[in-house]
Specification:
There is one protein chain. By secondary structure, the protein is mainly alpha-helical. About 70% of the residues lie in helices and about 5% in strands. It folds into two domains: about 80 residues, Arc Repressor Mutant, subunit A (Orthogonal Bundle); about 140 residues, Up-down Bundle (Four Helix Bundle (Hemerythrin (Met), subunit A)). It has a three-stranded antiparallel β-sheet with strand order 1-3-2.
Length: about 230
Amino acid sequence: MAASNTAAGKKKKNRSDTLMHAAYTALQDKISIGLIRPGTLISEGQLAKELDMSRTPVREALVALEKEGIVEIHCGVGALVKPLSTGDILHLFEIRMLLEPLAARTALYHIPQKEMEKFRTKFEALLKLADAPEEERIRSYVEVDSAFHLMITDYSENPFIAPMMQLTQTNIRRLAVRSFKMGYQRYLNSVQEHLEMIHIMEEGNVPLFCEKLRKHLSWGIQGFLEIPDSSI
């Protein structure tokens, strides 16, 4: 009986964790692509109904997002998407400028050729989206860009970098979506820069790749600072 109760309890917990993850992913996606704007009040009930689940996993997802600095929970009011100030943007990129080149110093020795080829194919596919709706084009870019940079940290010999970078992803995606709404040329430039980085990666030139990565991130900072809104 005890073993049966333990198994039932474990199954219930696994289901709860799965629902919480589903709610977390849905919220993260909506916030990162701008469907839920800064200052917007998030309705637990509405989202729970939309996802066909109870309010508990939605509430747990919001708590997780609050710990990541994505939302602010106000008792008696609800959860609000936290805006990003200019200072926030600079702090986020300060972390990236330090950690991504550090990760790349060892990651390039371990990234399989098939991974490089996969990302070259994905970035080349982005060049063919000129006539696609802006939202589709930007969303496709952000997904590929995020996966590419996380790949670098995932293959680093330092196991602490990837979890730290993962915590920044929702905010980085939010910034990217807003930045690439400023023009198609910026989108093209960024895709080309990633293809150049992949070429350097394939050559195994670690110092040159790290230099190119830093320049790419510096270019990204400048683009985000040109976003007309004072907060994002």
